């Protein structure tokens, strides 16, 4: 994609400014995705020590801001693309009102239309809550903390702990969902802005969803390498 952008900029000087802007946006956006992807809310947990003079152990429960990864984007793209697919089937219908409805549906859900962007944005947020509600269970987390003799300072064990963790998770889901939705529609907004200012357009280096995948995979590889290095250092003492 960089080679293609440079080729377009060489043949047409009007493509140079959009290409430089795209490169800068990609670098800034990658940094932003890394920061948000690694960000977490740490809930303090105290584990009561055994014995009369035993000291309590302090720990924390980490909850990531982006708990859902990029799964909501995949779900949202599948759903927001369905009206256009349906409209293509109905454009050759024998009924006139079906053909008219298909044309209006196809126009409304063009990838750069306001309706498409708004529906896409809201679907990503909605699927973020939906996916996290399936994968993260505050009741089980609270039960596991209680079984290990732990508690959150100032919060009663049991139902109160579960409600507290669920409330924090829901708040983080809002930030995580807005973050994913922003990353999802950003490439479309960039192209619309370029067209509106008549500065020309160039293809994006990496899509928003692709960037989230790349960042997640690279960070996971780094964690795996670091864990292997730590194990290798420990093995030196045995």
What is the fold named in CATH at topology level of the largest domain?
A: Preprotein translocase SecY subunit
How many individual domains? 2
How far apart the termini lie comes to 49 Å
| Level-2 CATH architecture of the largest domain | Orthogonal Bundle
SS summary, helix count: 9
Provide mean pLDDT, rounded.
83
Order of helices and strands: HHEEHHHHHEHH
* CATH homology-level superfamily of the largest domain: SecY subunit domain
Binned strand content: 5-15%
Tell me the number of strands: 3
Largest sheet: 3 strands, antiparallel
The largest sheet has its strands arranged as 2-1-3
Q: Which structural class is indicated by helix and strand composition? A: mainly alpha
CATH class of the largest domain: Mainly Alpha
Give the overall form.
Answer: flat
> Percent range for helical residues?
55-70%
Low-confidence parts: none
Radius of gyration, in Å, reads 24 Å
Please tag this protein with its features:
single chain, 238 residues, mainly alpha, Preprotein translocase SecY subunit, flat
Offer a concise description of the structure.
By secondary structure, the chain is mostly helical. The protein has nine helices and three strands, in the order H-H-E-E-H-H-H-H-H-E-H-H.
What does this structure look like?
- It is a single chain.
- The chain has 238 residues and is mainly α.
- It has helices spanning 2-11, 16-38, 71-80, 82-90, 96-108, 114-135, 138-147, 159-196, 208-235; strands at residues 40-47, 57-64, 150-151.
- The chain has two domains: 1-38; 43-199, Preprotein translocase SecY subunit (Orthogonal Bundle).
- The protein contains nine helices and three strands.
- The protein has a three-stranded antiparallel β-sheet with strand order 2-1-3.
- 21% of the residues are buried.
């Amino acid at each position: 994609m960089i080679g293609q952008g440079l080729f377009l900029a060489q043949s047409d000087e009007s493509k140079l400014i959009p290409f430089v802007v795209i490169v800068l946006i990609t670098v800034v956006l990658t940094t932003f995705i890394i920061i948000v992807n690694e960000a977490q809310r740490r809930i303090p947990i105290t584990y009561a020590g055994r014995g009369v003079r035993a000291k309590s152990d302090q720990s924390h429960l980490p909850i990531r801001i982006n708990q859902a990864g990029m799964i909501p984007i995949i779900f949202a793209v599948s759903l927001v693309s369905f009206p256009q697919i349906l409209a293509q089937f109905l454009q050759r219908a024998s009924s006139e009102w079906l053909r008219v409805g298909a044309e209006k549906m196809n126009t409304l859900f063009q990838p750069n239309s306001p309706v498409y962007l708004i529906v896409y944005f809201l679907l990503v947020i909605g699927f973020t809550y939906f996916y996290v509600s399936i994968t993260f269970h505050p009741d089980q987390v609270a039960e596991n903390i209680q079984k290990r003799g732990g508690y959150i300072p100032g919060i009663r064990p049991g139902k109160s702990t579960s409600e507290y963790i669920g409330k924090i998770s829901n708040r983080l889901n809002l930030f995580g969902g807005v973050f994913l939705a922003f990353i999802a529609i950003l490439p479309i907004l960039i192209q619309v802005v370029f067209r509106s200012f008549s500065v020309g357009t160039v293809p994006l280096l990496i899509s928003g969803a692709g960037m989230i995948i790349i960042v997640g995979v690279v960070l996971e590889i780094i964690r795996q390498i670091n864990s292997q290095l730590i194990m290798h250092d420990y093995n030196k003492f045995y």
